[in-house]
Specification:
With about 130 residues, the protein is of the alpha+beta class. It has a single domain, classed as Elongation Factor Tu (Ef-tu), domain 3. The chain has a six-stranded antiparallel β-sheet with strand order 1-6-3-4-5-2.
Length: about 130
């Protein structure tokens, strides 16, 4: 399992505009680019999350970073130190042709993450 942490910094706000607000932190070394099921921890709490590691090529970005979408969380994380535990890779990083195609992929990522956490919580209860 790969673990990393960083201070949440302001991004361009595109995730929020697409319905998936993300906490942006420096990308970890030793972690392949892609989308992962993860856990995010801050303020002594741990949350289910999705984590994109890579370059947002569709938007002309040049810098590699980690963008963390915390499931069922609505709050301000700017400036907070956040820890990410990468659990499972669910797909490769991809340059999408449109925002609609990206949003569809993100909704599928979310479906996969919810299923992953549903199954893993059942295993913990057994």
């Amino acid at each position: 399992m790969i673990n990393f942490s960083g201070r949440v910094r302001r991004g361009a706000g595109r995730g929020r505009a697409l319905g998936f607000p993300t906490a942006n932190v420096p990308a970890p070394s030793g972690c392949e680019d892609g989308v992962y099921v993860a856990r995010a921890s801050f303020d002594e709490k741990t949350y289910s999350a999705l984590c994109f590691v890579g370059i947002a090529e569709m938007f002309g970005e040049k810098d590699r970073q980690a963008e963390v979408y915390i499931l069922d969380f609505d709050g301000d994380l700017y400036g907070k130190e956040i820890r990410i535990d990468v659990l499972k890779k669910i797909r490769e990083s991809k340059k999408f042709d449109s925002k609609e195609e990206l949003t569809r992929a993100m909704k599928e990522d979310l479906r996969i993450a919810r299923e992953y956490f549903k199954v893993s919580s059942c295993l913990l209860e057994s």
